[in-house]
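Section 3.1: Structural characterization of target chains.
Under the original work plan, the team committed to producing a structural model for every single-chain target entering the pipeline before any wet-lab resources were allocated. The record below documents one such target. The sequence was received from the expression subgroup and is listed exactly as submitted; it comprises 338 residues.
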Amino acid sequence: MPANKYALLRYRIIDRCLTNSSKPYPTRQDLLSACEEALYGSGGENISQSTIDKDIWAMKNEGNLGYYAPILFSRPDGGYYYEDPEYSISQLSLGDDDLEAIRFAAATLDQFRDVPIFQQYENAIEKIINRVNISPRPDDAQLEKFIQFEKSTVSKGNEHLGPLLDAVRSKKSIRIHYRKFTDDNLKEYELNPYLLKEYHNRWYLVAFDTASKHIRTFGLERIESIEKAERKFVVEETFDPDAFFKHSIGITEKQVKPHEVVLSFEPVAGKFLKTQPVHASQKVVLENEKEIRISLHVLVTPELVSFILGYGKQVKVINPVMLKKAVIQHLREAQENY
C-alpha cells in the first residue's frame, strides 16, 4: 500500500535520527518526539508508539518503498541503529523516470527564481539535485528546443509574501497601508490575516477587517506597507479556507449564493473546455455537432463575466438572466469604444 505524505515525512525524520552521529542509538521515544516536533511543533498533535513501530517495519520490509533499511535494535545501548553505518534512505539511487521527473520539476520551479519568498529555497533545491547525483545530460542545454514553460512574471507586491505568510501562520494581526486602483487615497487597515491566494499570477490576502467586521480580499500589489500589530487573534469559526472560494471563479469573496450557470459553446471551444474545466462544478449537459453546453454552480462575479467575454462569439449565456444581461451590457459598452 502506498505511503501517505505524512508517513514519508516520518521516514525521513527517522532516517535523520539514525544517521545523527552526535546522538547515536535513538530510542523509540526519541524517534517519536523527533517526528512530533518536526511535523506539529511543540504542543501539537501526538503520534503513537505503534505508528513508529509500523514506520520502522515499513522502512525495513515494504517493497513499494524500496528502502529495505538495515535497521537493528541494540539491547546494550537501548536504541536503534543502521547495521551499515554508511546507509541512508536519502542516498538511494533513482531510476531514469525518477530523474526525468526531478529535471522537469526543477525546470518548473526555476520560473519562480525571482519571487522573493521562493529565493530562500534556491540553495535547498540545488542541494537536493546534488544529493540525488543528477548529472546534466548532453542535450539538457537544448531543453527549450523541445519544451517551453510558461514564464511567471514577477508582479509588484510579491515582496510582501514572506511577512504575510509569517503573520498568517503565527495568527498575529497586521496594519497595512492600501491604495485601491479606483481611489488614489492611501487607507490604513488593521487586519487578522487568514489566507494567501494566487490567481492569474497575482497574490491576494484574505483577512478579517477589524473595523468593518467583515472578511475581505486585498491585492498584494496595492499594499504600500505592512506593520505587525503583534496582537494574537482567533480565526472566525465561520471561516473555512476550503469553502471560501469553492463557488468562485477568481478571487471575489463569498457574499451571495451561487447560481446554476449554463453556457452554450461552439464545438471547438466546448471541446477545449472539456479537457480543461474552468471550475470543479463543470458538467456537460448537452453535446451535439452544433454546440456543447456546460453548467457551472458558481457565483456571478466580474471574473466569470470576463471569462465569458474572452470567448467572444463562441459562447452564449443560457442562464441565469442576470448574467446574460451583464454580458450584453459589457458588449454594448465595448462597442461604443469603436
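Residues 130-139 have pLDDT under 50 and may be disordered.
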